[in-house]
Structures are given as C-alpha cells and as structure tokens.
Please model this.
Amino acid sequence: MGGKTVLILGGGIGGLTVATHLRRLSSPAEPRIVVVERKRAFSACMANLWIMTGERKDPREGQRELGALSNAAIEVVHADVQSIDPAAKTVQTTAGELQGDYIIIALGAETNPRAVPGFAEAALNLYDIQGALQIQRALQEFDGGRIAILIARTPFSCPAAPYEAAFLIDSLLRQRGVRGRTEIALYTPEDQPMLVAGPNVGPALIKMLEERGIELHWEQIPMKIDPASRRILFELDDTSYDLLVGVPPHTAPPAVRESGLVDASGWVPVDPTTLRTRYPGVFAIGDVTAIRLPIGMFLPKAGVFADEQARVVAANIATEVAGEGTQAQYAGTGFCYIEVGDGLAAYGSGNFYGMPAPSVTLEPPSERYRQEKVDLERTLLALWD
Model:
C-alpha cells in the first residue's frame, strides 16, 4: 500500500472497527495503522446498563485491553488529542506530533455535566462507568420515593439508553418488591422517544412505558438542578426527585471543535455515503459527525452506525491507495436492541436514509433479542481476534 500511514483518532467502536477492517484488507506490514486513544481499555456502550442493574459487578468483565491490537500489527498511542490540522494532516497529541496520509476522526462525543448548573453535583451519570456503579449502589438501597431519569440536552449518544434505563429500573425494583412505593419519571427535550426513527418506534416505546407505569415528560429542557432541595427547574415547570439518573449534555471534543472541521451544529459534516470531510484524505465517523437526513434531522449517534461507517471508510482507503476497484457507500441502515427488563429486549431496524423519511420497524420484546444483544457485545470485544 505504498508505505502510507493511517491515523485513527479514537479507540471506540468506530475507531477499532476501521483499524481492524483495514488491516484485514491489507498486508501485515502496510499501511502503517496508528490508533490514538487516551484510555487503556475498550468497553462496549451497553455495558453501563448491566453495571447499573448489578448484573455485571466488575466493569472489567466487559473490557478489552487495547494493547492486544499489536498482535494485529496495529499501533496504539495512549495519548490525548490536543489539536488537528486537517489540511496538513497532522495531529498534536500529549505524546507528540503525528503525521498521516489519511486521518479518520472517531473521537465520538464527550459529555459535559457542568453545562447544566447542578447536574454534576446532583445526577448520577448513566454515561459514565463510575456513575453506573453509583446508580447500582443507590438502587440496591432504594426503599421508595421518586426516581427521575433526565436527558439534559439533545443530541446524545445511544438514543435508546435512557429509555432502557427506565425499563430496567422498573424491572429491578419490582424484583426487589419496592416498585409499588416508587414513582419513575423520564424527562426529555425530545418531541417523542427516538423521533428520528419515524412513526413506529416512538409510539411503541410510549405504550411500553405506560404499561409499566413510567411517566414520560417530553419537551422538557432543564435549566438548573438544585441538589439541596432535590428539584429540577425546567423552562416552564419544575419537579422533585429522590434519586436522579442523568444523561449529561454531549459535545464534540475540544480538538475537533477547534480544528475548523465542525459546522453550526457543533459536529463534523461529512458526505453521508463516503464519510469524507471537506479536506482530502480526512474522514469522520460515528458520534462526532453531523449527517443531515432528508427529513431535516440528523442521523442518531449510535455505535451501530459507527461500525458500518468504519467498514466503508476502511474499504475505500484500501481501494484508493491500491488504485483499483469501486468505492463502497454507506447506505444508512442500522439496528438497535432495546432492553425492557425481565430478560427481554425489543429490536428496531431499518433504513435511516430512506426517502422521504426513515423506514424503521420495531419487533416486540423477546428473550431472543436480549440474547442477541449479549452476543453483540462479545462480537465487539473480539474485534481484533
């Protein structure tokens, strides 16, 4: 492959998929593949929910050391990305400067709990491993009261996760015998759950929430949280809580925001089929991207999209450097397992690039789909085997 160097910024689902897939499409020696990731281990996004419920006691059970990538002739630089020059294709990290022939930005979305006053002090962060452990302990001790699940801002990663959290908390408290003296309420800025998925998914989720006695309050944007009085203040209303499970605001990492790659959305616009940015040889995949759909909304931020996008980018880089073959295209398809408790999960799938609107269906909950979600994590943890 002509001694090219491919810099992959981020060691999440997208970054690891593009690294391992590109290696499989090439020789063990070329191109040079370098993954820049500050964390030492990879964990799949669904793990926090299982930590939250106590099904998984040790977070390390769902992690894989990134050092194992060396067995696949993939270099790992454990460092923070400080700046990106997409024109020069250079990346400044805490381990020094890197130069590439290709750059793939797979840094995902960062959470910013302090963007809402009081959130960091009051909410147990569902999107953080330590936060999931805190929720686990709180639920074990909970003896009744009001549990609020708060989505602070949109967009956020894993659109189904807060709804899954509500279902799983309901199931866990029923098993513990305290559900009868507990209120569970979910607050979201969204117009309806997972609105981008179209007319089939949201109403089905609303029905399942209603069947379980879980309150849903949409179009609720929190302005501040008062930890002392345990109250959430919204634009037009407020509510109380005894236990607050939160999804913090999400943002692109600082190095991305300062690179000149983002648009007014705050995320990186890309060609929806090739994931190319406006800079030649620079791609972006996964949660860090802004892909506007025909309906005017953006493609949701979810690992399944990052995975499929990564495969397309890997194939196209391999083809481009070899100077042969046709370009692959990302078609906008995706799926999602939605846990509803009691060992069951629903399954949504479809084409998010559909015209004139996304075409997504939701299959009813079953043990089969829950097992498939477990199997999916095993597949992700074996990316480099």
